[in-house]
Design a protein that fits this description.
298 residues; 9 strands; 5-stranded mixed β-barrel; binds ligand LQZ7MJT6; binds guanine; alpha/beta; Rossmann fold
């Protein structure tokens, strides 16, 4: 059932077009903002009105979700007056999907007319100052699988989406991060909102202590198993990107530590903080037009 991993793109432009046409012919929504909900964060789509939901299994060429905490639905609707599409559940390399499949929805969003991608995830905190439940605004990332050739843009480049050698030094929109910081002040969230560098590993195992120490030395503030391929493909095709990472656990850096991280704990913390994340994301969505108008003010 799963697509075998490989470095070449397994989706043709025709596949992307077919999926886009299929969606456009079934919904009147024309979203400008897409949100990817991380583990246990599907409730980010709860406040959407005029909701239209498509199970991934019904959408041509779409992968299906296999991870608990990822519902597997594409939700269209209106939030704070803005037409949006939410991925309730994302795809991961460790599920056996190629990175081309993992990022398939991002190119669909581009073809649907989306301009801004908001990504969320659950991650383990490496920065000593971070606490469980902190929300980290993603300032930058490290594409560890990419260093080893597991990269969503490997293979022939499709110029219809973007250039061969995209610049990633501005992967996460400075303006959106500034807006999110302003919002966190207004909402009085500053004691649990941080900024930092997210590192992707392939998973599915959590880190050994030696690996965690190495990542910390490399400058990673948190580590997870997603997001980077989606952001890379989004930047390639010219989307504006904003990312939030919920610190669901502190990564063990010390052999004397007794705690053992597990996915259930990750989902529990996601649930606990989901409303705060929802508030931040909704307020951000409500104000995205300020950026387009060059009016990022309180
Ligand atoms: O989809 P995200 O990155 O939020 O999921 C994280 C990473 C693993 O998939 C899982 C581990 O608990 O949560
Ligand atoms: N790799 C990794 N992914 C996570 N997702 C949530 N917590 C963690 C973690 O500690 N490590």
């Amino acid at each position: 059932m799963h697509t075998k991993g490989g470095t070449e793109c397994c989706c043709s432009f025709e596949d992307y077009n077919q999926t886009t046409e299929w969606l456009l012919s079934r919904t009147r929504h024309r979203p400008k903002i897409a949100v990817v909900c991380g583990s246990g964060l599907g409730l980010l789509a709860d406040r959407v009105i005029n909701k239209q939901t498509f199970p991934y299994a019904d959408i041509p060429h779409f992968p299906v979700s296999t991870v608990p905490g990822h519902e597997g639905c594409l939700v269209f609707g209106v939030l704070k007056g803005k037409c949006c599409v939410f991925m309730q559940g994302r795809f991961h390399l460790y599920e056996g999907y190629s990175l081309c499949k993992v990022t398939f929805p991002v190119r669909i969003f581009k073809l649907l007319g989306v301009e801004t991608l908001i990504v969320t995830n659950a991650s383990g905190g490496l920065c000593p100052d971070f606490k469980v439940g902190d929300i980290m605004l993603i300032k930058d990332h490290i594409n560890l699988p990419g260093f080893a050739g597991q990269h969503p843009l490997c293979g022939p480049n499709d110029e219809r989406f973007g250039i061969r050698f995209p610049c990633m030094s501005d992967a996460y929109s400075k303006e959106l991060r500034k807006l999110a910081l302003d919002i966190s002040h207004e909402l009085d969230y500053t004691n649990f909102v941080r900024e930092g560098v997210y590192c992707m590993v392939s998973g599915p195992n959590f880190e050994t202590i030696a690996e965690a120490r190495m990542l910390q030395i490399l400058g990673c503030d948190s580590v997870g198993m997603s997001t980077v391929p989606e952001v890379t493909v989004a930047k390639h095709c010219g989307l504006r990107v904003f990312g939030l990472s919920l610190i669901t656990n502190k990564v063990s850096l010390d052999y004397s530590r007794e705690e053992r991280v597990n996915h259930e704990e990750v989902l529990e913390i996601s649930k606990m903080r989901a409303e705060h994340l929802q508030m931040m994301v909704n307020t951000l969505i409500a104000r995205t037009h300020l950026l387009d108008e060059g009016l990022n003010t309180n």
